[in-house]
Structure formats: structure tokens, C-alpha cells
Write a structure and sequence with these properties.
homodimer; 199 residues; alpha/beta; Dna Topoisomerase Vi A Subunit, Chain: A, domain 2; 4-stranded parallel β-sheet; two-stranded antiparallel sheet; 8 helices; 44% helix; binds zinc ion
């Protein structure tokens, strides 16, 4: 052990971050201690505050500092539309880049039996309750076009049909501006099987 | 602002880490809050502890929890040899991979006038004091073979000569096991200009 215990402990703790191995943790620790001491102190405070104050919205499971997130608390959103996504980042992306103004439900994952992630972990009972609201007319399934995302979409579609609500799936295909030869195989297969009549 | 303030603050704080932009900070924050809550709490504690308890060794400027680091405090090291490196990581690398058992001096950087890093920032006055110790017989300059590292090496060599001590520079060239065609140009130029007579 070349480094003092407090430095070894910091490098070990940094490895809980995604994609951070031993070399990166070392580089991070040096930068924090040598050039970012204020930032490091702020990071410690922010971690504690986020752990203490952040929970999930009662209605949509988005990260929330209160019982309800701002979107669920708003009376300006369209109750007829309920968009189901895998991650809080998906909500952020849809809010930033589209004019969608319905409601959301965040799964915080996707069905993955091998990882022990089933309907309970994704809060699907709460989603079924949301669907039981008479105002909801369309469930938009926006899970990712992976094997697990598709299985999850299928499960949610069944829930919606059981509740007598229309279900739609966002379109997947070649990105706008993308070139066929650079698109991955799965996307290309999706784009082909999802082809539409030219009008 | 889609995310609650405590989450925005955490994502902003994570960006003080080297190489962490907005997307990575978001992914890190989600992982910490959803799957690494214990790790996140530990990281906050480790940051505070490292900031509170770590300083630099009085003699060599290595990170140290006490006045002297274990290497400087040891009476098992060879006082005749003083190896000058840029970073604490260099000490760790030399200790792990070589049988060097002399002393060290850590610059915590390299001369870089444009960034305001001069002799004072590198503790070169303290290094000159170390060289004044009658026990020191050889200064081994192990700064990196970059333009700034070479300028730093040159400066240190002058200090050593002024103190009447032998100066050596670690060898730079094609890595053992490396192939010429994959070696970067600077290394190759170093290897060629540093060629030795075959005996
Ligand atoms: Zn909500
Ligand atoms: Zn020391």
C-alpha cells in the first residue's frame, strides 16, 4: 500500500461510479485533492442531500423531492395520454425535444427475469391503477427497442388492453439524417419490418 | 428544469470529475440513486475524510496522512538516491514495478509557464534543500518525455549540478514488447536519438 488509507478509501469509493476502474479512480482522486477541493466538498454535500431528499413520485415514479413531481402536480397536462418510459432520462429527453404534454410513468428498468426484475420491481401494479383512471384514453409505450424493452412493451400492452385502453408504440427505425450503412443491424431490421405504404 | 433541484445539484457536482460531461453525470447520478445508495453514502464520507485528513509529505510532497509519508519515514531506504517524479501515481508505479529503494520527490506537476506553474508551484526550493543533504549522491529525473516534462528535467538537472550531485534521466524509447510501427512518433524520435553502441 503506497497511498495513505484515506486516499485508498477514496479511490475505492469512486469505483462505485459506472465505468470507473482503478486507473480512472486514481486520476479522479488526484484531481479532486489537488485541483478541485471545493468541487469535492460540494460533491460530498450533494450526494448526502440527494440521498436524504430525493424519492420517487407517487404517481409516475420519476425522481421527486416531494410526494408528487412537477409534471404530475401540474393541471396543465393532458390526462388522456400516458407515456410509459424506462428511465427518468427518457422523460427529460421527451420533454426537451418533443411537444408531448401528456402524463408519464417511469418503469425505472425493464423486465429482466434473469436479473430478478419482474412486474413488481417496475411498479406495474401502480401503472395498472393509473390505467384504471377513466381519463386515460391512450397508453404510449416508449420502452427501448431491445429484447427486454420489447418484452416489457408487450406486457404493458396486455395491461392496457385488459383495461380497455388504446395502446401505441413509438416508432423505431433509421434515425432522421442517419445513413443506412451506419445504422446498427437491430435498428435496420426494425426499420424494414416496420415499413409503411408510400402514399 | 425537469429534474428536482437536489438531482440537478448532484449532476452538476459530478461534473467536477475529470472527463465527466452532462450525459455521464446524469448516468452516474441515476446509478448512485437507484442501485448504489450505500456506495454513494460511502463516497460522500470518503471525500470528506480525504479532504480533512490528507496533506502532503513534508519531505517528498507525496500524499500523506501524517507529517511524513511511510517512504520518507522509513530508515530502510537508500538516502544516496533521490528520484524526482511528476505525480504520486509515478511513485506507485515505480514502487510496484521496479526494485528502486531510494527516496522520492513528487513535483505535483511540471513546469508550465502558460498555466502559471513555475518552480514555486513544484516545490523546487524544497527539492534544492533535499539535494543539499550530504547523503544524496544521485538525482534520478523521471519526469515524462513531453516538452514540459523535458523542460522540467532540464531545470532540475541544473539544480543538481549547482549542488554538485550526479544527475541521471530514466531511459525513454520503444516499450519492451512494443513494435516500431505502433509506437507514436515522439517516442520513436526519442528512441532513435537515444540510441546506444551495441557492445
Ligand atoms: Zn410524477
Ligand atoms: Zn515523503
Amino acid at each position: 500500500m503506497i497511498y495513505p488509507p484515506a486516499l485508498e478509501a477514496l479511490m475505492a469509493a469512486l469505483r462505485c461510479l459506472p465505468g470507473v476502474g482503478q486507473k480512472t479512480a486514481q486520476r479522479m482522486a488526484f484531481q479532486l485533492l489537488q485541483r478541485e477541493r471545493d468541487g469535492a466538498r460540494q460533491l460530498a454535500r450533494s450526494l448526502d442531500q440527494a440521498l436524504d431528499e430525493l424519492g420517487h413520485c407517487r404517481d409516475c415514479r420519476m425522481f421527486s423531492q416531494g410526494d408528487l413531481c412537477p409534471i404530475c402536480a401540474s393541471d396543465k397536462r393532458d390526462d388522456a395520454l400516458l407515456c410509459v418510459v424506462e428511465s427518468p432520462a427518457d422523460v427529460a429527453a421527451l420533454e426537451s425535444h418533443t411537444d408531448y404534454r401528456g402524463r408519464y410513468f417511469v418503469l425505472l428498468g425493464r423486465l429482466s427475469p434473469l436479473d430478478g426484475i419482474g412486474p413488481e420491481e417496475l411498479g406495474l401494479a401502480r401503472l395498472a391503477e393509473r390505467m384504471a383512471d377513466a381519463a386515460v384514453q391512450e397508453v404510449i409505450v416508449a420502452t427501448n427497442p431491445t429484447v427486454e424493452g420489447e418484452a416489457t412493451a408487450h406486457y404493458i400492452a396486455e395491461l392496457a388492453r385488459a383495461a380497455g385502453i388504446a395502446v401505441t408504440r413509438i416508432a423505431h427505425g433509421v434515425p432522421v439524417g442517419g445513413e443506412l450503412e451506419y445504422v446498427d443491424g437491430g435498428t435496420l431490421a426494425h426499420a424494414l419490418s416496420g415499413r409503411r405504404q408510400v402514399e
